[in-house]
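Annotators were shown the component list below and the corresponding predicted structure, then asked to write short factual statements about the assembly.
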Amino acid sequence: MFSTKKITIAIDGYSSCGKSTLAKALAQQLGYVFIDSGAMYRGVTLFAIQEGIIQQGEVNEQKLLAKLNEISLGFKFNPVSQHSDLYLNNMNVEHIIRQPEVASYVSKIAAISQVRAKLVHEQQVMGKSGGIVMDGRDIGTVVFPNAEVKFFVTALPEIRAERRFKELREKGNNTISLEEVKSNLILRDELDSTRTESPLVKAEDAFLIDTSTLSREEQLHLALQEIEKRLF
Ligand code: CDP
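Structure shown to annotators:
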């Protein structure tokens, strides 16, 4: 169906809009590597929490920058989930980085330009040979501005909040309410879209997908159709 040339697919969009679900499905379908760039920002945030760099809700930027080179992030394939897990300094942190506490600070950490410079560089190295689907906020605009195919994914905030709430419940988190999940998503969208450094914006050449009323199969089908159109 597709050419043998391994292309780069960039997927950006709002919190919990189905980006990672789409990226994983595309990578599986095409035999590509999937990289969740958000996991890396979550990994730096977890490090900051563990090191006491965040106190009373404030990030001590100087302290974080002084320790930035102590942070080593990597992905390792997990044969059980069939996806890659994030490792922070050789510890598997895939589950802990999804916790609401990490989500509540990650956008502050992601707004720091030196943090972005480090992670963008690592992401570019991971994708240098193509054959990659990466999702995030600045993939089509900053990390891979020359990606052959770009998607910008969105969905109504109520639907996104319900999806994330359900996901957290399924993972055993019973302490957070739907309202709290929704406020976190809205706050992160606001911080991510208005920050000075690489704000979340749709790349001009990105194809817009609104997943509000689409099933997983439908969004995958739509994306595959678009890839085919752009490549041939
Ligand atoms: O899964 P969800 O859509 O909620 O978020 P994520 O992809 O795990 O990303 C978490 C946070 O990391 C975002 O809210 C952004 O603040 C930041 N991020 C970013 O700034 N740039 C990226 N390329 C990816 C994530």
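Statements collected:
1. Strands lie at 8-13, 33-36, 54-55, 58-59, 73-78, 83-88, 91-92, 132-136, 149-154, 207-210.
2. The first strand starts at residue 8 and ends at 13.
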